[in-house]
Amino acid sequence: QEEVMESGGGSVQAGGSLRLSCRAPGYTSNNCGVDWYRQAAGKSREWVSSIRPDGSTSYASSVKGRFTISKDPNEDAVYLQMDNLKPEDSALYSCKRTGSTWACEYNAWGPGTEVSVSS
Predict the structure, then answer these.
(1) What order do you get walking across the sheet with 33-39 strand by strand?
(2) Residue ranges in the chain assigned as alpha helix (H)
(3) What is the rounded distance in angstroms from the CA atom of residue 68 to the CA atom of residue 80?
(4) Beta bridge partner(s), residue 116
(5) Phi-psi domain of 68 (left: phi exceeds 0; alpha: psi -120 through 50; beta: other)
(6) CA separation for the pair 48, 22 (Å, rounded)
(7) 60 and 119 Cβ atoms separated by less than 8 Å
(8) β-strands 77-82, 33-39: how paired?
(9) What are the pLDDT tens digits along the chain (119 aa)?
């Protein structure tokens, strides 16, 4: 499998928006889902959002109503639209291809993209 890769991070002020991209080669053809996680400095990694092969989505309570996950199967890409950002959203955001097969789970993590939100 080609590497999973995130992009789109940056620095914004509170209330601003960012759109993160995750290129997860093979997630469509292998019927995988894609998860977004984040890890703030000094904290454990936490789950943010998921999109499943059938297109259903789920969100952590801390981001529900502000973040939107979507996918473009033609590009093997998943997006995380983040609106009304807060300083506590600052973290390294990583995506992971996920599923019950080797094809989904092998080399499934990207290196992450950094998000910084200032007050």
Answers:
(1) 10-13, 113-118, 91-98, 33-39, 46-51, 57-59
(2) 102-105
(3) 6
(4) 11
(5) beta
(6) 14
(7) no
(8) unpaired
(9) 678 999 999 999 999 999 999 999 999 899 999 999 999 999 999 999 999 999 999 999 999 999 999 999 888 899 999 999 999 999 999 999 999 999 999 989 999 999 999 99
Q: Are 83 and 63 in contact (CB under 8 A)?
A: no
Residue 22 neighbours by CB under 8 Å, 6+ apart: 4, 5, 6, 34, 36, 77, 78, 79, 80, 95, 110
| Host H or E run for residue 114 | strand 113-118
Q: For residue 88, report the phi and psi dihedrals to the nearest 5 degrees.
A: -75, -5
- 55 Cβ contact partners less than 8 Å away, ≥ 6 residues apart: 71
| Phi, psi of 87, deg, nearest 5 | -55, -35
The region that residue 27 occupies, defined by phi over 0 for left and psi between -120 and 50 for alpha, beta otherwise, is alpha
Q: Tokens 């620095």 sit at which residue?
A: 11
